[in-house]
Amino acid sequence: MDSKWGGFEITLEGVMRRQGFDHRRLAQAAQLQQHQLQQYIAGRVTRPDLNVLARICAVLGCSIGEVLRYVPPASDAANDVMKIMERYTTGKLAKMADVPANTVRFYEKVGLISPAERAPNGYRQYTPMHLVQLRVCRLIFMEPYAGRKLRDSSRTVLEALKEPDLPKAYRLAEDHLRVVEREYAAALETASLLKKWTERREWPSNGRQYGHKEAAAMLGVTPEVIRNWERNGLIRVPRAGSRHSRLYGEADIARLRIIYMLRQNNYSIAAIRRSLSSYDSGNGGGAVLALNQPQDEEEIEFMSAGDHWLEVLELFSHRARTIRQIVLEEMNKGSSCAPPS
């Protein structure tokens, strides 16, 4: 390993043990020569072949960050690297990232990017890694806000970049992409179930009706949640009986289940109301489309992510792939501290 720049360490043996592979089985599955694989397992390969690593990762079902770890140089060598490394002023970094200079200062102040060193004249000196952090930061915090789950998932990548640990950041970027894709798959499935529900106009009934608390218990929510849906026009059930209570039939329960499912998958009240209004007006085919299309100007002005959730998730999927690509490009340069070529 180069004492000046650091290097990469292959950590293949632990992953193989965890996945239950010995070298013969892995060599056969990855179509590699056993001698060649042994060199990787023993850590004797100084310039790993990415094609070989891709085969290994595909067979073991792991990311490259699990089999390849960056080992930084010793502190003295690292200091030598920092001395010759390209530096940017606040203004230059802001121009490169296409953001105002005040945004750079603010991100540093609140800890979203690493603290910059100061030159003898007191000016901040940013590095290429600050540019990487800033690019990822902008992708994370751009509108719209899609909820804490996706925000927290993406911020783990940023924290790894601040260490900096590129293989870890890449692994976390892949994890974040999987989180977004799972959310998108769940939203699509929900929309599909909504479509099936709208196509069914007749509901078998045993004549039984359920009270407010019974209906809430069937969904696993509180009665107040159902009251909130009623106040927002998602369901209308007339009062009946001597006590003027709301009684829910089988069709009402099915509708409540659809509302619950849409809310669980982050569709907003406004989006659900649009969809169900389309269904109630006889346009069942437009119910799914209405989930993602605000209608009037006032609604568009105050639109949230949940009002067009599928569209937002498509956008976040693209951003997650971009974050992963940014980290991968830095990894391919060989070191987070390497000077530009």
**What overall form do the CA principal axes indicate?**
flat
Order of helices and strands: EHHHHEHHHEEHHHHHEEHHHHH
Number of helices: 17
Helical content, roughly? 55-70%
Please outline what is shown here.
The chain has 341 residues and is mostly helical. Helix content is 59%, strand content 5%. It contains 17 helices and 6 strands.
Task: Describe the SSE topology.
Blueprint: E1 7-10, H1 12-19, H2 23-30, H3 34-41, H4 50-60, E2 68-71, H5 75-84, H6 90-97, H7 101-109, E3 117-118, E4 124-125, H8 128-141, H9 148-162, H10 166-198, H11 212-219, H12 223-231, E5 239-240, E6 245-246, H13 250-264, H14 269-280, H15 287-290, H16 297-301, H17 309-332
Antiparallel strand pairs: 1-2, 3-4, 5-6
Helix pairs in contact: 2-3, 6-7, 8-9, 8-17, 9-10, 10-13, 10-17
Explain what the structure shows.
The chain has 341 residues and is mostly helical. It has three domains: 65 residues, Orthogonal Bundle (434 Repressor (Amino-terminal Domain)); 124 residues, Multidrug-efflux Transporter Regulator, Chain: A, Domain 2 (Orthogonal Bundle), CATH 1.10.1660.10; 125 residues, Multidrug-efflux Transporter Regulator, Chain: A, Domain 2. It is 59% helix and 5% strand. It has 17 helices and six strands.
